[in-house]
UniProtKB/TrEMBL annotation:
SUPFAM superfamilies: alpha/beta-Hydrolases (SSF53474). It comes from the Bacteria. InterPro entries: AB_hydrolase_1, AB_hydrolase_fold, Pept_S33_TAP-like_C, Serine_prot/Carboxylest_S33. Residues 12-38 are annotated as: Disordered. This is Transporter.
Amino acid sequence: MLAAGLLAGSAMPGVAAASDPPGRSSTTRETIDWKPCPKDTTADCGTLRLPVDWARPSGETFDLAVARRKAADPGRRVGVLLVNPGGPGASGVEFAVDDAPAHFSADIQERFDIVGFDPRGVGSSHPVKCSSELLDQQPSVYPRNQAEFDRLADFNRALRADCRRHTGPLFDHADTLSVVRDMDALRRALGEKKINYFGHSYGTLIGEQYAEEYGDRIRAMALTANIDHSLGAREFLVSSAATAEDSFHQFVKWCDRTSSCALHGRDVTAVWDGLLARADRGEVHDPESPDRALTANDIALFAVKAFYGPYWDELATYVAGLDARKPAERRGSERSQQADPETRAEPFPAVFCQDWRIRAKDYREYARLTQAELRAAPHMRGSPRAHKGAAGCIGWPDEVNNPQHRLRITEAPTILMLNSLHDPASSFAWAANVHRQTRGTTVLVPYAGAGHSVYNRSDCTRDAVDDYLTELRIPSAGSSCAPTGTH
């Protein structure tokens, strides 16, 4: 990939004049200098120079990294299919180059140019970078009193300042609404009047907001594992906790009925709760790094990642292995002798904290939120990822570039949504709420099983997306897809 750079420059060809509404100009377009991707020459790679701040299109610029796989059957080509795999922080370029051939059906690959891009601040699109040394000093995101809350807020402010210093002006414009404007500039650069879009997880927020801003420029849009961007702090944290807890119960049920489960025949919930209690006492150590004590949050995070699959066999083996180990004495962790690079890519806080107005003001408010999480998820103790995301915004300025709001889609065609009933991260309740907000514009197809990914779950889920993208055939209202295998 060509390295992304933040360059000062004058007004650029293809960028809307300052008098135009941000991103709404369609009279000119920037071009992409396509070249074979270094990693895979069957795909094309390039960059598109865009404004850092769409309100100042003649100001600082950055290079948006883009990758394309041309339609394998040009005679049947429908158009471009822009893709984003989520995160925030996942690379659309890597998805297009590495994953798209195995992910999408032959029909999609034959009929669409599959185009992935790294959202601003991510991957090769001028990534947000922060000091490795400072990142390694992260205090607990579970403060126990006002002093520890203040320490976390001070750290977050110091980290934000550090990341801004290492990243430059783009740091303050890493929000999804800016990404949406980049995506429409990409549409123009590709020479397309209308796009098709496939977004997964956080990539659904890009799709939802693109539909708000540029709905008339969409031919078809399929969204899987949907984000509800209308939620306040409490609703976001509690619903995230509840869906993680639901996935835990799905795992327990699977283990009870599956003889190959490493915990089969045992009280899985009791084993799990006991393991987390031991971790609270510092008695559980990482099998791969025996000097490092595992926290309850570490173990819960491992579980959530396993729920994504779901990889229940792997999780059961992991929990059984930790449970069988004798309590270890609390020891200080040894630092690796290998020097870290001076900076690391860390886009998540820059994106999340500019997309969500979630700012606990003091420990009392934070403790109330944490208690609500615990009530919703007594075994998982909340959602580790959602909790950390919200904790990372403590101490940030109150102003948010892209605050939560109910979706207002007025010009888009019918949008297809799919969501697992037992998604560990993107709650089905989120998808249902997005659908309620956009009932005249969206069709929601539930997958009645577990896991985070949806498209390749079954012939039913894949065909629903393929038929819609290729032929614009909309599933009938009330359609759903049955779970596959033992899920």
